[in-house]
């Protein structure tokens, strides 16, 4: 079975390959094709994978190419993890937004809109080529903004594109661990929303909802990352545990100030850090795997550091540094390829699951997965405050899709202006002009 990874020179690709190395049995991936326009990055990551595979019998074959069409031919699964504009683009997204006093995070607020506007046209083009060259392939999208990009690709690929994210998985794991679950994977997580905009409304262990016990215990709430990040009082007010990315909404002023005062933005930090890694990993005298491990440890430890600092949440716990999206990707592929039925939180088309959104809107929700794909599980309606935010952000996503399709600057301005974290039409206009000035890929916005 062939897995094609678009963005195959990306830093997190070794996580996926490591998961594949531990997979055994019929229907496993035997060939991995890495595709990336940057041959130097492909070489560095290929060296890491070679070291990972050393001594592993029947390790999946790895092929690297810069040719997209070549990579897609013969694919059973396509993993999309591209970054249009690279980390320099992310750093520019943050810088332009912060200069206007608004958030520039890569998936939330102005930064997420800018990233979406330059990524959607590329993702739609890729979807068209997949439909032509690998029509039977399943597409797993990790490209951010994951929900928006998955929805854009679904307009061409339908339900054969499924978005994944590690945030809900990590949140559910932390809550289950705090509540004493012997195996967090056996807990049922009642989670619903959009990508990076969802809430845990219940967590059942052995059929019993244990979330009320958590919300009633300040000590338990203070014992995991989201509890410290949001504070016990606010979580009890919500009656739910939000995805960590909702900190950008609930504590926006504090977060923007922390980002403005930081020595470097997150994008600039990762740009500089990864430049060092790729230079080091390309040196044949250096262990590429060791260089990757050191860089990854630093990357994970500093994740959302400004948010944690502004909230006084402290350092990340060791158990939270292990990632998780690669495990979701492997479980998804196994469920489809082998009909190993499982339940995963995924980004899929709504199909009536949330009645406030139309059928084609991509949402993030528990899904039953089998050989026929991912099927969203019926969920209770969201409370009013969450419904309003979900509908507002989905409306913005639709404007981004419309702007990407039409090339309309006016529609792009509308997308920025309607976002809850951009509070001015005047600022929205300046953001569009600012982003067009630093991103050649947005020249299409007339």
Beta strands, count: 13
Main sheet record? 6 strands, parallel
Structural class, by secondary structure, is alpha/beta
Distance between the termini: 44 Å
Shape: globular
Task: Note poorly predicted spans.
Answer: none
Strand order of the largest sheet: 3-2-1-4-5-6
Assess the beta-strand content as a share of residues: 15-25%
- Overall mean pLDDT stands at 93
From the alpha carbons, calculate the radius of gyration and give it in angstroms.
Answer: 21 Å
Helix content: 40-55%
The tally of helices reads 20
Defining key terms:
alpha/beta, single chain, 6-stranded parallel β-sheet, 20 helices, 4-stranded antiparallel β-sheet, 446 residues, 13 strands
Fold and architecture overview:
- The chain is α/β, with parallel strands linked by helices.
- It is built from 20 helices and 13 strands.
- The protein has helices at 13-21, 39-53, 68-72, 86-99, 109-133, 146-157, 167-178, 211-215, 218-221, 225-230, 232-238, 247-250, 252-261, 266-281, 288-301, 305-311, 325-338, 384-406, 409-418, 425-438, and strands spanning 2-6, 31-35, 61-65, 77-80, 138-141, 161-163, 188-194, 197-205, 208-209, 241-242, 342-349, 362-370, 373-376.
- It has a six-stranded parallel beta sheet with strand order 3-2-1-4-5-6, sandwiched between helices. Strands 7, 8, 9 and 10 form a four-stranded antiparallel beta sheet that branches. It has a three-stranded antiparallel beta sheet with strand order 11-12-13.
- Helix 1 (13-21) runs parallel beside helix 2 (39-53).
- The chain is globular, with a radius of gyration of 21 Å.
- The model has no long low-confidence stretch (mean pLDDT 93).
């Amino acid at each position: 079975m062939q897995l094609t990874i678009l963005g195959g020179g990306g830093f997190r690709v070794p996580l996926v390959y490591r998961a594949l190395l531990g997979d055994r049995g019929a229907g496993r991936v035997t060939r991995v094709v890495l595709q990336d326009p940057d041959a130097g990055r492909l070489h560095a990551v290929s060296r890491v994978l070679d070291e990972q595979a050393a001594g592993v019998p029947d390790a999946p074959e790895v092929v690297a190419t810069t040719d997209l069409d070549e990579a897609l031919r013969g694919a059973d699964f396509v993993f999309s993890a591209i970054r249009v504009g690279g980390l320099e683009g992310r750093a520019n997204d943050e810088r332009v937004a912060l200069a206007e006093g608004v958030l520039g995070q890569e998936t939330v607020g102005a930064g997420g809109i800018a990233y979406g506007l330059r990524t959607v046209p590329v993702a739609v083009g890729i979807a068209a080529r997949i439909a032509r060259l690998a029509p039977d392939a399943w597409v797993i999208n990790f490209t951010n903004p994951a929900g928006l990009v998955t929805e854009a690709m679904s307009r061409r690929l339908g339900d054969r594109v499924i978005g994944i994210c590690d945030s809900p998985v990590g949140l559910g794991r932390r809550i289950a661990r705090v509540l004493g679950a012997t195996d967090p994977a056996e807990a049922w997580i009642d989670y619903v929303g959009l990508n990076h905009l969802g809430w845990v409304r219940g967590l059942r262990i052995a059929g019993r909802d244990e979330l009320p016990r958590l919300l009633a215990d300040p000590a338990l709430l203070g014992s995991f990352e989201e509890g410290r990040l949001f504070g016990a009082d606010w979580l009890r007010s919500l009656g739910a545990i939000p995805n960590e990315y909702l900190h950008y909404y609930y504590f926006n002023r504090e977060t923007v100030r922390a980002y403005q005062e930081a020595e470097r933005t997150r994008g600039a930090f990762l740009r500089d850090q990864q430049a060092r890694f790729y230079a080091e990993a390309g040196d044949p005298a250096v262990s590429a795997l060791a260089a990757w491990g050191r860089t990854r440890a630093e990357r994970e430890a500093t994740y959302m550091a400004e948010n944690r600092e502004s909230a006084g949440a402290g350092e990340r716990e060791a158990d939270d540094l292990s990632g998780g999206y690669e495990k979701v990707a492997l479980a998804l592929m196994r469920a489809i390829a082998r009909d190993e039925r499982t339940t995963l939180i995924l980004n899929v088309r709504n199909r009536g699951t949330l009645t406030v959104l139309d059928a084609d809107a991509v949402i993030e929700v528990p899904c039953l997965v089998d050989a026929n794909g991912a099927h969203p599980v019926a969920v209770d309606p969201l409370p009013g405050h969450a419904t309003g935010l979900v509908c507002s952000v989905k409306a913005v996503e639709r404007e981004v899709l419309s702007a990407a399709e039409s090339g309309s600057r006016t529609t792009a301005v509308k997308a920025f202006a309607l976002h809850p974290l951009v509070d001015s039409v005047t600022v929205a206009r300046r953001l569009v002009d600012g982003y067009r000035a630093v991103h050649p890929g947005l020249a299409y916005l007339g």
